[in-house]
Amino acid sequence: ELLRALDEPPSVPFATVHLLARMKTLPPTKTLLPKLTRLFPDPSMRKPLVKILERLGAIDPDFVVPQLLDLLSSTDSDVRRVGVESLIAIGLRHSPRTVPVLLGHLRSKPADALPRRAELIALLTKIGKIHATRLVPDLLKLLDNPLHRAPAATVLGEIGGAHASAITPRLLALLKTESNYDTKQVLIQALAA
Question: How far apart (Å, rounded) are the C-alpha atoms in residues 157 and 180?
Fold first, then answer.
């Protein structure tokens, strides 16, 4: 019933989204998320949508995070805002499961998707600056994976600060053994940040 109500005229989905945001159990992610997407442009829905999307992201980040990343390419600023706020909320509360998905997207996008890459690094940096204690260990582990090394190093370089004592030795050690020229450049930039 609730899922059908999301297809009704504007006042019904508004009430339904607010109700869903307060429910303890949500309908299945793969059924609910497509129904919610048509509501993203409505700024009055942003706050409850972000709550719902955060919960869905905690349940199934491999499905939800890529869907939210697609919102970053929208020409509608309200849609992009829902994506950014949801990704930040998911990342802040569920970083161990979300950060690898975000970093995987960084590496899987072509070089011409640099605006999206910059957005993702900015998201991870924001999450990292707020919850560095929780995020830095995840990022340090991801340095072991060559596919994630450059974006993880970029975010670690941006976070730096109080965590430099854990970050710097690891980046220096990788710099000595890294054979990929581009990744070496990222490591140098991260150390200089």
Answer: 18
122-148 residue pLDDT tens? 888 887 777 777 778 888 888 998 878
In whole angstroms, give the CA distance from residue 35 to residue 174: 45
| Model confidence pLDDT, tens digit, residues 155-173 | 899 888 788 888 999 999 9
What is the distance between the alpha carbons of residues 178 and 167, in angstroms, rounded to a whole number?
16
156 vs 135: CA distance, rounded Å:
9
Tokens of 4: 């059908």
- What tokens were used for 82? 């829902």
CA-based end-to-end distance of the chain: 52
Number of separate helices (H) and strands (E) present in the chain: 12, 0
DSSP 34-77: HHHHTTTT-GGGHHHHHHHHHHHHHH-HHHHHHHHHHHTT-S-H
Determine the 3-state secondary structure of 10 from DSSP: coil
Burial class (CB in 10 A: 0-12, 13-18, 19+), 40: buried
Both tokens of 145, joined, read 């994976």
pTM above 0.70, yes or no: no
